[in-house]
Amino acid sequence: MKKLLLGLTLFCCVSAQAQKNSLLDQAFWQGKPDVNSVKAEIEKGANPAQLNGSSFDPVVMAINADAPNETIKFLLVQPGNEVTKLTHDGRTYLHWAANRGNDEILSYLLSKGINVGLKDSHGVTALTFAAGSGQPNTKIYDLLLAKGTNLKTDVNGSGANALLLAIASDKDFKLTDYFVSKGLDLKSTDADGLNAFGYVARSGNIEALKALLAKGIPVDQAALITASEGSRRGSNGIEVYQYLESLKIKPTYTNKEGRNVLHALVRKPKQNDIIAHFITAGVDVNQADVDGNTPLMYAAASNRDTAVLALLLPKVKNINQVNTKGLSALAMAVNSNSPAVVAYLLAKGADLKTTDKDGNNLAYYLIQSYSSAEGGRGFAPGAPSKAEEFEGKLKLLQAKGFDLAAAQKNGNTLYHLAVAKGDLGLVKRVQDFKIDVNSPNKEGITPLHKAAMISKDDVMLKYLLSIGAKKEAKTSFDESAFDLASENESLTKGNVSLSFLK
User: InterPro entries this protein is in (predicted)?
Assistant: First the structure.
């Protein structure tokens, strides 16, 4: 028995090692491992081609950590790591090598015949990706140009060329001068007419802005808005806005997307004094952009500081205003913000009965907010998990008398919505609301039918059956759960036995 237990323990350890995959651990790459170190991890069961939940793989992690080039090249010849492989945001290894300024790996990838014109999911090539981060190694651009990249036609989704994308990070204008030497014009504009002055305003570099004016680049009226958007390096201080206003840029300026300076400011932390400055200057807090979103909506969706809401609400004409999708500030807060923000909006009169244009109520957005993962983007260490915040928002809605058991306009119950998220823990939580697990939506689909259509294994299906789901129920097209599961490629490819559904 001891040998059996020891064997099971060893098996579990090996399985855990394979599941964890040390090659997807950032800490591993911080040590700049050599080829032998990587080989040792592969021998232990680490997968050199596995993508994590964000579609980063060991090759990308190695490139971004500036691992030795021999290590990166070793990974590139492992099965599953072909040079055209798509990773996070649809980017190839060419994007990552260019962005890091690794001209040796870039040259290696180009020697394999990779297409320099490949764009990621944001419409960005390797060259514009590198320029957007201000990559100063001009060998990167030389290599890409030698393979046919055209600087004048290679622009991002906003029509910005490499010069415009790089200039905000180019403190001494050396990279800008390089692009000018290659044929780009300092007076370039993007598809919306935003010029170099507007792009530099994002960085808040006042001296660079003055230098551009000295070079004959005119003030861009949208500069206040681009300054409010900031850069990856952080937000701008009040002195940047004061300088731009001294150039006669109107604080109330609205761009082509219908956004004013508040739309971006309210999403960022520690901008309250600047927000107050622009409210005092007459910037409209009720201005809706092309998607119908107001500053209040953006704040409710993403800013966890209720003091921002306190600044906006005295000027807000309608706290229940909705955007083009029919979402109110409260719905956005329930979907993606904290219980404190939801509570604040409810206390100020936000409507519990709000529904979007598809008829989805707050319960729909509460379910979307759930995640069993700890923390998340924007969460500080030790902050409540999304599951804990879900419970907090749930209690607030219940305290106000919200009916969580009511179906959505299309007939979907919380069971349908929980199953669609594929989270068994959430399905179990929904049980407490005493909803009929066999209730069909308007298409005749029950939660069991939905699970049969989307499940990757049999766990959700078997659980639903255990709490009373009827396998004999038929859809409007006379399909049973067995019929639908039989058409589910994930189940068939996984050789999952479906006999329990017959």
Answer: Ankyrin_rpt, Ankyrin_rpt-contain_sf
